[in-house]
Amino acid sequence: MLLLLALLPGTASAGKFCDQMRQRLVAGGGGASGLLVVDAETGRTVCARAPGTPRPLASNMKLFTTSTALSRFGPEYRIATKLLGDGSIDIKGELHGSLYLQGAGDPALGVPAFYNRFLGGLGTNVYELGDQLREAGVRSVSGRLYADDTVFDRLRGVADSGYATSPYIGPLSGLSFDSGYSDAGADSFAADPARAAATALARSLRTSGVALRGQVARARTPADATTLARVDSPTMSQLVRITDVYSNNFFAEMLMKLIGSRFGGAGSTRAGAGVVERFARSLGSGVHAVDGSGLTRSNRASPRQVVRLLLSMRADPVGDEFIQGLALTGQTGTVASRTEGTAAYGRCRTKTGTLTGVSNLSGYCFNRSGRVMAFSVLMGSVANLTLAHYEQDLIAAAVASY
């Protein structure tokens, strides 16, 4: 606590207060580190060190991805996964044709056994499609069940893994299932997520009494197919919250492709990154976006660009959802065990970011004085991650006490 008190403006001049924050920045992150703290009410800079130098964002990249998704789609938007048929249903309940499971890029699609265990109960139940199909009167299908994942490209990863499946992200797909895992126990990744989703649905259909011939396959849904069932994802604000609070790389990358599909002309990481960059520029910010999660080291922005994004989002119509979607220090997600015993405990909404040699912390602090502060700490030459977190927490405590 004595270390914390030494940082408070009441015990030192404003200049010394800032000098001590800079010292903590370098102590935790080395010389290749930057800092910016701004009073969000007045726009006044409280402290800065190399605020204009772009640095690796790590998972602070998710701030740019999720702010774009929230603003462009809206907080109540839901992603629809559909089951369609290309034939007629006779009086006996036989569909003379095939079924198509059409993905729309929902990162939460899966089975309850998976998402209740790993996603805190947040998920889209693929089994509900079978229930709705029976309610529509279908008892047998003469054709096959096809998986349609064509809303996205079929690059399974991002630049960090050469666009192949990454050990840090399940395989990306327009028809994702259980975050890309091959089973609800999350033991290994699926070779083909779309087929895995269709196989799980086919198994469920047969168990519930719908006769389905043949093995599942993959095909594009015919233009004249009719929707027989659909399940909607959690709201965009809920998807964003799980992405930021728990730093979920899979959700971030799925959102990036979803952004590209809807607003960038293609369901690809590259198209989504272009939309994210344009959105940041529209807010007076900026970012070099390569993926949605921050795993690729070439995702870069400066502390000034991060803070400008935070300030602009605070004034945005979806600002409340964006801020509430960040982890609360000492309480939730990636900062649940941090800042205890400091003025930042329970008073800052933040996003962490970690790569080898990189540790970042950016967000908002809500002070007892009534001030709202926006800050970005980007540490680019970290030798000791524990020390970096310790110094970041004390910097956040100083920000929360200003």
* Overall 3D shape: elongated
Strand order of the largest sheet: 2-1-19-18-17-16
Question: Measured on Cα atoms, how large is the radius of gyration?
Answer: 23 Å
The overall pLDDT, averaged over residues, is 95
> Could you tell me how far the N terminus lies from the C terminus, measured between alpha carbons in angstroms?
16 Å
**In this structure, how is the largest beta sheet organized?**
6 strands, antiparallel
The number of helical segments is 12
- The portion of residues assigned to helices is 25-40%
**What's the number of extended β-strand segments?**
19
Helix-strand makeup class? alpha/beta
- If you consult CATH, what is the topology of the largest domain? Beta-lactamase
Strand content: 15-25%
Count the domains. 2
The parts where pLDDT drops under 50 for at least 5 residues are 1-12
| CATH architecture level-2 label of the largest domain | 3-Layer(aba) Sandwich
- CATH class value of the largest domain: Alpha Beta
- The CATH superfamily of the largest domain turns out to be DD-peptidase/beta-lactamase superfamily
